[in-house]
Write a structure and sequence with these properties.
Elements: E1 2-10, E2 20-28, E3 31-37, H1 38-45, E4 52-55, E5 59-63, E6 65-70, H2 88-97, H3 102-118, E7 121-128, H4 131-141, E8 144-151, H5 156-160, H6 168-185, E9 193-195, E10 197-199, H7 207-220, E11 224-228, H8 233-240, H9 245-251, E12 259-263, H10 269-278, E13 281-284, H11 286-291, H12 298-303, E14 308-310, H13 319-334, H14 342-356, E15 374-378, H15 390-397, E16 403-408, E17 411-415, E18 418-419, H16 424-446
Parallel strand pairs: 1-4, 1-5, 6-7, 7-8, 8-9, 8-10, 10-11, 11-12, 12-13, 13-14
Antiparallel strand pairs: 1-2, 2-3, 5-15, 15-16, 16-17, 17-18
Helix pairs in contact: 3-4, 3-16, 6-7, 14-15
This protein binds zinc ion (ZN).
């Protein structure tokens, strides 16, 4: 199957190639075969059959976004968690983890997956309690994904009473779930799916759990990920002794060159130096973090040599908003309106995030030989006219709803703004029903929509 995207403005996100006006992208069997000015691409492909031509005049082609941190089923917390700050973890997330039925999480995760594709996200790192139940839809949808069960080994009932108790039986069950799933999913769909070993936080994970997961990551040659630098340092010292959160992660295989450390919005200079030495990357989630009132010192971490990718985290579905949040919070933090330039942040959301996941040789930019993971934005829209500088206009003004077509591995997964191969109305109905049912049980058990703390 050869597809020619023709007449487009092309943003290749390749250091050597600037924006191409009146450009074309030739896709052949899932990979990019050619990128350039239309006339040149036509000349180079003259005589070879083209199966489909996509008329992209007035449109912009760029690489798909790579979101390095998501919890797909957490769309359940929309409208519940946004205004209650850090207590959401204890008062909503932890208790909901024992209430949400697996099929409900599946319905909510299907919604989030469709939203990601609709928003131009072609690769996602998803970690969640029941990542295994989300996997079938993720596989069917066509998105590229790293998937992992977010393991812990605490007694959740004790945690709800404010006590941390590590439980061997929980550990055995969680390891069985996480490792079986990783072995099942890793490399599926012609390598489009990959496993990741994940823990939620250090304060809910014992060193024994971490080391078992690390050994599996070694064996399968896959990344590890965890939430880190989220204000858990005192709790970590109380639970684990004196080493401190970053050192503890380092000592147990969760802070090294294959690690994706999420958030890091409460870090000091020693933490940044340790993380830089370790080779771990940051999953920066500025859209989510800004509503928690916390912002990672991402530009300082970048200056220290730490690779940075961008993640949505949860609730949200429009990745362009993540880019804008990334710029806004960096400028507020630096009190400088010129830091975090739009071209750099678009690179961070594409090729930079691909590098964080170890996938930059395959995706993240539009170059011959790479996988055809791309999005086409219709620029003939309110808010995007006049287009002027395409990079700047898209980063500051585009929305998910402006995306016309999305491709992963050369397969069209969004066309005319709709996710292909699924009944979107049914998807929305199922997710709404799942959320309503889960919250009704939550309210029954806890007397309302939050557990008091
Ligand atoms: Zn998270």
């Amino acid at each position: 199957m050869r597809t020619l995207i023709d007449g487009a403005t092309v943003i290749p996100m390749n250091d050597d190639a600037p924006v191409i006006f009146d450009g074309a992208v030739l896709v052949d069997e899932g990979r990019i075969a050619d990128v350039g000015v239309s006339a040149s691409v036509h000349a180079r492909s003259a005589g070879s059959a083209i199966d489909r031509v996509i008329d992209a005049r007035g449109k912009v082609v760029l690489p798909g976004f790579v979101s390095v941190h998501n919890h797909l089923g957490y769309s359940v917390f929309r409208g519940r968690a946004e205004d209650i700050g850090h207590t959401a973890v204890q008062s909503l997330y932890v208790p909901m983890s024992t209430i949400l039925a697996r099929e409900e999480r599946g319905a909510l995760a299907a919604l989030s997956t469709a939203e990601l594709l609709r928003g131009g996200v072609t690769t996602v790192l998803q970690m969640e309690e029941d990542a295994d139940v989300t996997a079938p839809f993720v596989e069917q949808s066509g998105i590229r994904a790293l998937l992992g069960v977010m393991a812990h080994d605490i007694d959740v009932d004790a945690l709800n009473r404010g006590k941390t108790v590590f439980d061997e039986r929980v550990r055995a069950q969680q390891l069985e779930q996480a490792i079986t799933f990783a072995e099942h999913i890793n490399g599926r769909a012609d390598g489009r799916l990959k496993a990741v070993m994940a823990i939620n936080t250090l304060s809910t994970s014992s060193p024994d759990l971490m080391r078992e997961l690390r050994d599996t990551a070694d064996r399968l040659d896959i990344p590890v990920s965890l939430h880190l630098g989220i204000g858990e340092q005192d709790e970590v010292r109380k639970v684990h002794g004196g080493a401190g959160a970053f050192q503890l992660a380092c000592d147990n295989g969760f802070l090294d060159e294959r690690a994706v450390a999420v958030h890091c919005y409460m870090v000091d200079d020693d933490d940044i130096a340790l993380m830089a030495r370790s080779g771990a990357a940051l999953a920066h989630c500025p859209l989510m973090n800004q509503f928690r009132g916390c912002i990672a010192p991402a530009e300082a971490m970048r200056a220290a040599g730490i690779d940075i990718g961008l993640g949505i985290d949860n609730y949200f579905s429009d990745h362009f908003e993540v880019l804008r949040a990334c710029i806004a919070v960096a400028r507020i933090r630096a009190n400088d309106p010129a830091v975090a330039q739009s071209a750099d942040i678009l690179a961070r959301a594409t090729i930079g995030s691909a590098k964080v996941l170890g996938l930059d040789a395959e995706i993240g930019s539009l170059e011959p030989g790479k996988k055809a993971d791309l999005q086409i934005v219709d620029a003939r829209r309110y808010g995007l006219t006049p287009l002027n500088d395409p990079v700047r206009t898209l980063v500051y003004h585009a929305h998910a709803k402006d995306i016309d077509l999305v491709m992963v591995d050369g397969r069209v997964v969004v066309e005319d703004g709709r996710v292909t191969g699924i009944d979107e109305d049914d998807l929305l109905r199922r997710a709404e029903a799942a959320g309503n049912a889960a919250w009704a049980r939550f309210a029954d058990q806890h007397g309302g929509y939050a557990v008091p703390h």
